[in-house]
Amino acid sequence: MSQLSIQGVSRTFTSEKGKSTQALLPVDFDVKENDFVTILGPSGCGKSTMLRIVAGLDHPTSGRVLLDGRPVEGPGADRGMVFQSYTLFPWLTIEQNIRFGLRERGMPESQQKERAQYFIAKVGLRGFEQHFPKQLSGGMQQRTAIARALANDPKILLMDEPFGALDNQTRVLMQELLLGIWEAERKTVMFVTHDIDEAIFMANRVAVFSARPGRIKSEIAVNLPHPRHYTIKTSPEFMDLKARLTEEIRAESMAAEAH
Amino acid sequence: MNQAMSVTPPLGAQEAAPRRRRALAPLEPVSARARVALGVGFFVMFFAVWAFFTLGGFVSPTFLASPITMAREGWLLFTEFGFLHDIGMTVWRVLGGFILAAIVAVPLGVAMGAHKGVEAFLEPFVSFCRYLPASAFIPLLILWAGLGEVQKLLVIFIGSVFQIVLMVAVTVGNARKDLVEAAYTLGAKPSGIVRRVLIPGAAPDIAEILRLVLGWAWTYVIVAELIGSSSGIGHMITDSQALLNTGQIIFGIIIIGLIGLVSDSFFKYINRRMFAWSALR
């Protein structure tokens, strides 16, 4: 049974002058428990809008989102999110940032600390607990953001181009780190990206978005074995998938540019 | 790539450029020592020019006392006229009125910044009040509250409260939207957003606003003391005016400046200690 079910969700933005833009055509999409799905599409195609609707940060114009059969009505701790921008609270230390959600739900402090320690170790930030976010590199800040989201033990992890602002080398290392965590912890993950390599490397399934107004154009299963090593990116299977997705995305990027 | 590298001059060449030309370039930082020397330099120059015109006999001592007369009069103020009591009264009025204003204004500003309905309700009125000059209220306040301390405190209060409300509201309202959204996805409720995101995020700026407004409160207190007062620095200044004692007037003004400078530095120091994170780049 699918854990997350997106049913006929569309989104139309209306400007103050009354002009409306359709960002998202009605989308139907299901995600199974412990699945890792990437949403691939050109920029401005509405893929982030869909993710924000799942997070409860935006409302669909039509349709609904079900999580474990219950409709989503607003943001909540059961859907953790990692954003593209650096969203750590700058006045809190790394450890306090990771404890934010735990404190909010009233967990005893000793338990909060224990849990924070576990995830700090998991993302390799031992020794940086008492640093402030601005004292850390972009990659370390995003690792903290991942730890913060995971520490809350959400049912599903939503990631909105979380490595988009990082340099290429860091980005690749972060992909491996996240995949390693997923292989060990098995979480349901929905990961938005415009990077084809990233979409294939991370996912069990890639959903390709069309240019705006967005809709899911095709879905491609990625049957590469786990655990995945970065060398898999040069394997013939990977290359095949990449060639297919490149064709799919190219048409959409051209359509997006033509607007 | 390699070719392009060789075209750019080595770092040493830039270092060798004349130091003076570099110092005159816009936005070029100055060393800590040069900064202190320049700052003190202006004070020295100021006193030198003042001494030159007064001691040199270019202006009548009735209108402008020399630095030496000023210092002597200042000494007399402390030893003969109980000036410390005046200073104490003025400081207490400023702090009293300012703290009252802050206690009322900061929560109101936070509420306005956080809740758009509250803002729509209060903002037009507060904006209107902000332009009412506090000094113009003095005659009215004397009618209402007499010549006592309440009237003095009210002048400071009226002068500060609306300014603080509006500036705090703007600061809180400009909170980073993405941090608010992140907090929501971590399970925060609306009250948690205000307490754990909006307030801590705005706190350093709120502290800066208070520092700024405290400076303004100092100008209001002197105006309040110029009219119908029996103690305080402002009262001493009006008394001295009646006696044509310009030395005392100037000394009083300098004391106000000094207290302002000290309290401002103290405030700055506290803010830097409390909000070390906000100075990080």
Automatic annotation (TrEMBL), chain A:
Under Gene Ontology molecular function, one entry of this record is: ATP binding
Point out the coiled-coil segments of this chain: none
Record keywords, A-Z:
ATP-binding, Cell membrane, Membrane, Nucleotide-binding, Transport
The ABC transporter domain extends over 4-236
Q: Which Pfam families match?
A: ABC_tran
Which PANTHER family does this chain map to? Answer: ALIPHATIC SULFONATES IMPORT ATP-BINDING PROTEIN SSUB (PTHR42788:SF13), TAURINE IMPORT ATP-BINDING PROTEIN-RELATED (PTHR42788)
Q: Which family does it belong to?
A: Belongs to the ABC transporter superfamily.
Query: What protein name is recorded for this chain?
Result: ABC transporter ATP-binding protein
What is the scientific name of the source organism?
A: Diaphorobacter limosus
Q: Which lineage? A: Bacteria, Pseudomonadati, Pseudomonadota, Betaproteobacteria, Burkholderiales
TrEMBL record, chain B:
Domain of life, per UniProt, equals Bacteria
The chain positions of domain ABC transmembrane type-1 read: 87-267
Localization, UniProt: Cell membrane
- Membrane topology type: Multi-pass membrane protein
The UniProt keywords, alphabetically, are: Cell membrane, Membrane, Transmembrane, Transmembrane helix, Transport
List the InterPro entries.
MetI-like, MetI-like_sf
Q: Write out the transmembrane intervals.
A: 36-59, 91-113, 125-147, 153-172, 217-237, 249-267
Which PROSITE patterns does its entry note? ABC_TM1 (PS50928)
Q: Name one Pfam family in it.
A: BPD_transp_1
Q: Which PANTHER family match?
A: ABC TRANSPORTER PERMEASE PROTEIN MJ0413-RELATED, ALKANE SULFONATE ABC TRANSPORTER-RELATED, MEMBRANE SUBUNIT
The family note in this entry says:
Belongs to the binding-protein-dependent transport system permease family.
Protein name per its UniProtKB record: ABC transporter permease
